[in-house]
């Protein structure tokens, strides 16, 4: 696989490390205390229901046939049933009829799966209410477990192959994120805890675990942590103000309305704010880590840059990053709501009424608030990183009692530069292979 060529950051002065520790550790402890207080000890458990039995099977034969005419149809409608019609022979793999072949009708209707020979499918057993001893099988959907496993393996292999140990740490951070979401955030909201507080605490836990696990414990990571935490709090406050100003109730989607029917105690307005915070966390991490790394690389490339020059140079990087991330956020929200957006295009109402509807206003507020949080993350993180990277500039020579001298850039003679530009390039005199091409194994380290 090769060695990891990640450049190690220069050592941070002890005084700066102490300041970061005194700042970050209390914030981490406060997050842990808040998580303990908000932990869902009385989260409701799913109610037991009489689920229809589901069994695995493999399609061995598909027979299509003309659909029979409908016995009673309104005038002006087709006289035959909507297809396709026919039978499917399935070899049952699990359940009481394992190893046997059964026949089921070809699935029909909106969203019905398209069946071919060799497909692995899910069967449901339907019992006749008039005669419980009689049961029939119907095809519910395809089995998706095996393709999902292969996709997960490909995903993990690609990350580890490219990122090596850093990629392996990223997979661990991803697992930790899902663990926090499934054990704290979602059960906490279901238990009636304030969704906004649960989202901020949960996002902070994810941030601490993921950033330090993926990027290591360093001053650069601590800067990204502080920038992300400040931006998360600011995003929550902006979301609270924006949803209040636009009078959003949280009932802007069909999913929220359905949830209110099953769980009337869930605060949908707070759930909307929680979704904004959780949704913006991943992009916030990206921006803050990039800005902290940019400042560190600029400082390493030119130690003579002042704090203001570091801030200005890294901010230019942040502007380019934000310009692309803004489009990413809007398209991500639009892609997740594409069916409803397409439905709105067929709406006969005026454009102003559509834009100010609960659903579209919710999506606009999501995008705007997340973008404002990202924009604020750039100057916050960049300024903090510039302060940290230049704080110990004069401490390197503390053991000699003299500050570290700033080496000026060497001046370039104008005549020498013009002579170098006008001189024709020389031919490559490196050893060549029998084919005439330079040796591919020749090291280029000296040249570069």
TrEMBL record:
Segments crossing the lipid bilayer: 19-39, 148-165, 171-189, 196-217, 223-242, 322-344, 364-388
UniProt keyword list: Membrane, Transmembrane, Transmembrane helix
A UniProt-annotated Pfam family: YibE_F
Residue ranges, compositional bias (Basic and acidic residues): 439-448
Stretches for region Disordered: 394-448
Domain of life: Bacteria
Compositionally biased spans, kind Polar residues: 423-433
Protein name: YibE/F family protein
Organism whose genome encodes this protein: Verrucosispora sioxanthis
């Amino acid at each position: 696989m090769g060695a990891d060529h990640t450049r190690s950051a220069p050592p941070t002065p002890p005084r700066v490390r102490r300041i970061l520790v005194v700042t970050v550790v209390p914030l981490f402890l406060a997050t842990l205390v808040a998580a303990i207080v908000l932990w869902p000890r009385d989260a409701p458990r799913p109610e037991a229901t009489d689920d229809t039995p589901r069994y695995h099977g493999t399609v061995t034969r598909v027979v299509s046939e003309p659909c029979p005419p409908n016995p009673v149809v309104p005038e002006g409608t087709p006289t035959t049933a909507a297809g396709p019609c026919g039978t499917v022979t399935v070899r049952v793999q699990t359940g009481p009829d394992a190893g046997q072949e059964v026949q089921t009708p070809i699935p029909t209707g909106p969203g019905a799966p398209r069946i071919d020979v060799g497909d692995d499918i899910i069967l449901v057993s339907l019992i006749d209410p008039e005669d419980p001893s009689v049961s029939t099988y119907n095809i519910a959907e395809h089995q998706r477990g095996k393709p999902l496993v292969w996709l997960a393996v490909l995903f993990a292999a690609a990350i580890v192959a490219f990122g090596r140990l850093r990629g392996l740490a990223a997979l661990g951070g991803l697992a930790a994120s899902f663990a926090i979401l499934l054990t704290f955030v979602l059960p906490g909201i279901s238990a009636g805890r304030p969704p906004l507080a649960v989202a901020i605490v949960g996002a902070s836990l994810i941030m601490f675990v993921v950033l330090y696990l993926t990027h290591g414990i360093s001053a650069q990571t601590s800067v990204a942590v502080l920038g992300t935490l400040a931006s998360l709090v600011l995003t929550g406050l902006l979301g609270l103000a924006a949803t209040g100003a636009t009078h959003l109730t949280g009932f802007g989607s069909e999913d929220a309305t359905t949830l209110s029917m099953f769980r009337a105690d869930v605060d949908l307005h707070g759930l909307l704010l929680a979704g904004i915070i959780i949704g913006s966390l991943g992009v916030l991490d990206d921006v803050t880590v990039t800005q902290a790394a940019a400042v560190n690389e600029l400082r390493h490339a030119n130690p003579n840059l002042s704090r203001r020059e570091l801030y200005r140079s890294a901010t230019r990087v942040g502007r380019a990053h934000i310009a692309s991330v803004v489009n990413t956020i809007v398209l991500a929200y639009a892609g997740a709501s594409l069916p409803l957006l397409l439905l709105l295009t067929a709406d006969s109402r005026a454009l102003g009424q559509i834009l100010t509807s609960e659903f579209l206003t919710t999506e606009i507020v999501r995008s705007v608030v997340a973008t404002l949080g990202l924009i604020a993350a750039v100057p916050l993180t960049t300024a903090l990183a510039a302060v940290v990277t230049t704080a110990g500039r004069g401490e390197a020579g503390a053991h000699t009692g003299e500050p570290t001298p700033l080496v000026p850039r060497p001046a370039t003679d104008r005549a020498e530069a013009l002579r170098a530009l006008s001189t024709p390039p020389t031919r490559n005199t490196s050893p060549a292979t029998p084919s005439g091409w330079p040796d591919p194994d020749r090291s280029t380290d000296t040249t570069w």
